[in-house]
Each structure stands twice: as C-alpha cells, then as structure tokens.
Amino acid sequence: MHEIVKMVLLAMIKGIYDSFKGMLVVFYLDKEVNERARNRQNSSAIRQKQVEESSQRPPKKHEKSKVVHNVIQCALLNGGVFLLSVLLFEYVLLPTIDSIFNIMFGAESFVTGVVWLWVKYFILLIYRTAWLIPLFLLSKIINALWFQDIADSAYRYSRGKPTSFPSISMYFADSIFSIVVQCLFLIQTTCISYLPFYPVGYALYYAQMSLLYSLYSFEYKWFNMGWELHKRLSFIEENWPYFIGFGLPLTILTQISESFVINGCVFSILFPLFIISGNEANPVILSNNFGCNTKIFSFVIIVANVIFSRTIGQTKKVPLTSGSR
C-alpha cells in the first residue's frame, strides 16, 4: 500500500512539474524551429536554385514559426481585450453608475432601489448582446486557429511531421465524437461537485477537471500522432495520477473567480502554454501491476454512443476504453 501511495504521489508531482515546461519552452521554441528550417533550406539550396532557374518562378519564402507571436496574441485578445473589458464593466462602470444614483437620489430612495435595477438590467442586456456574446464567439474561433497553429509548430519542433488519420471521414468522426465525450464528461464533473459530502465532491471535481484539462492539452499531440479517441482516453485512465497532476495547476487557476467569463479568459490566456507543455512532456506510465484503471470515461462513452445511434442511425461506435489499447 505504501508503494502504491508513493507511486501515485510521484506521478502527480511529475505531472505538475511537466505542466510548467511550456512556460520555458515557448521562449526558445521559435528560434529552434526557424534555425532547423534554415538549415534544411541551406542544405538543398543548389537543388532549389536549379528548379527555380528551369521553371523561371520566384523562390519560395521560408515561412517562419510564430509560436511566441500567437501566444502573445492569445494573451492580448483574451486578457487585454476580453478580460479587461469584463473587469472594467463589472468592477468600474456598474459600481460608478450605482454610486452616482446613490449620491443623486439617496441610498434608500425609490429611484435608487427600483429604477436603478431596471437601468442596470437594460445596461447588462445591451452589454451582453452587443459586446460580450459576439466577442466570446469571435475569440473562440480565433483561439481555436491559434491553438492549432501553436500545437502544430510545437509538434514539428520536437517530433517532426504529424501522422495523419487513415481517412478524412475517420478524422472528422473522431473529432466530433471527442467533442461530445468531453461535453458529457464536463456535465458529469459538474454533477459530481454537488455531492452532499462537500470535501469528497470538491476533491472529485478538481480531479476530474484536471483530467479533462490534461485531455485538452495532450489531444493536439495525440491527434498528430494518429491516436484514436479510445486510445487517448485509455492512456489517461491507466495513468491518471500523472494527468491529474498535469491538469491541476490550470484547474486551480481557472477557479479563482466566481465568474464563468473571467475563468474562461484565464483559461484561454494560459492554455497555449499547456499545449506546449503537453507536447514536450513524457507522461509517467504506471506498470500493469498498479492495477488501478479508473474507467472514468466509460459512462460518458456509453451515453455518447446512445446519442449517436439515435441521432445518426447505425453509426460505428467507439469501443469502451477498458481493454481497448
């Protein structure tokens, strides 16, 4: 028993340590990627020159890696624009207008008590429909593109050319099923947080959110490695101590506020670093003697299979994670 506890703690500590690697790698990743590209370009310069002279076409420009640029852009969009606007509105503009009403009409007056509530309601309605929701949707689309570019550049830097799926249809089916499983797992995690015995529910919530954030972070690399969904989930289930440790810092940092929007901004600012960390990490693989496969994704996969079979028809079901590797 003592050895098992020690193994779990060491794996968790290793996961926490690896989660911070992206904060270091990001500073020299672009430089390394561009230097390797220039070396490859110089080694084939003669052959390229011959091809260019024979075809009379202008030489192709080397496309530089922009990982740091994209990470900074994510921070500026999600922190400098989105998060700052939310903080200014909720903690500066609304309190200022409230104070003006109190000064002009008195704290106990009808205007301050009733009229201000209606004014605040319409201000919030306009703010959310004209600014918050459009910016949220726009940032999600832009973030997805930047996240993918960061992940691809990091993968090429450390592992070379990505391995493609056998077919495009399999790629899209795997991606859609993965999104459904992740959404269901998030619902499962939220429900568990409401368990009557608070410490247990609280601990399970953090553990499952850490696993989910680890899946988010590693999925880009595993996609590029050609891993299908059942293999990705099985790997997390069998080595859960490491992945709880890896996702724990991001889980804690995204729980600092009671506002879902603020926590979402914090996630979008930090997540690119965790993508890079996941790409660079070498997860602790527990031995088969450990014997503690959680099968934590099994229930949501069953539900997802039911949803797909009823909405799409006779679709190919993803096998349960237990014993699928």
From TrEMBL:
Q: Does the keyword Transmembrane apply?
A: yes
> Pfam families, per this entry?
EI24
Instruction: List the keywords (alphabetical).
Output: Membrane, Transmembrane, Transmembrane helix
Quick one: where's region Disordered? 39-63
One GO term describing the cellular component:
membrane
Localisation: Membrane
Task: Report membrane topology.
Answer: Multi-pass membrane protein
What name goes with this protein?
A: Etoposide-induced protein 2.4 homolog
The primary location reported for this protein is membrane
- Xref: PANTHER family: ETOPOSIDE-INDUCED PROTEIN 2.4 HOMOLOG, P53 INDUCED PROTEIN
Q: What family, per the record? A: Belongs to the EI24 family.
Residues passing through the membrane, by range: 67-93, 100-119, 125-147, 168-197, 203-223, 243-276, 296-313
